[in-house]
Design brief:
Length: 164
């Protein structure tokens, strides 16, 4: 059974306070300067109901009267991803979108036309993956399932396009 979920319905597995605390520990262990921007960006991603691109993060920062250059945002996102605070999804040629790593395991459906992302959880898929890997004597470590689609809105716009 597929439970189609809105972005905000995928449960987060840790509170923002715990995640920020972990970030501060990593920063201290690496002997880096503490940066309010790093914490701001992590907070924005945590609170966002959608997957954000670096440009999207720049817009939110600006709306909150927080200045951060796009190149700093790139650098911070790289840091946050390297240390497992956020994960990225390659959407299309428009680039990556980010979400908080501490979320229940889920899959993504991505519209190739508008880049909209829908998340879902499906235990049948999970069980099938375990069954396949086990039968081939592998231990499943992780998976990353993305379904590329044309959403309803974009399909209506592109009437006449061949579908499978
Ligand atoms: Zn679309
Ligand atoms: Zn997601």
């Amino acid at each position: 059974m597929v439970s189609k979920l809105n972005n905000q319905e995928i449960k987060k597995t840790e509170s923002l306070e715990i995640i920020l605390d972990k970030l501060r520990k990593v920063v201290a262990a690496k002997k880096l300067k503490t940066s309010k921007q790093r914490e701001d960006i992590l907070t924005i991603i945590y609170n966002s109901k959608v997957h954000l691109s670096s440009e999207g993060i720049a817009v939110v920062m600006k709306n909150n009267n927080k200045h951060c250059s796009v190149s700093s945002i790139y650098r911070i996102l790289q840091f946050l991803e390297t240390y497992g605070f956020v994960t990225s999804i390659d959407v299309d040629k428009s680039g990556k979108k980010y979400e908080i790593a501490s979320k229940e395991h889920h899959y993504h459906i991505i519209c190739l036309s508008c880049g909209n992302i829908v998340e879902f959880i499906d235990n049948d898929i999970k069980n099938k993956q375990l069954e396949i890997t086990k039968s081939l004597q592998f231990q499943l470590i992780s998976d990353n399932l993305r379904l590329f689609v044309l959403c309803d809105k974009c399909r209506k716009k592109q009437k006449g396009l061949q579908t499978i």
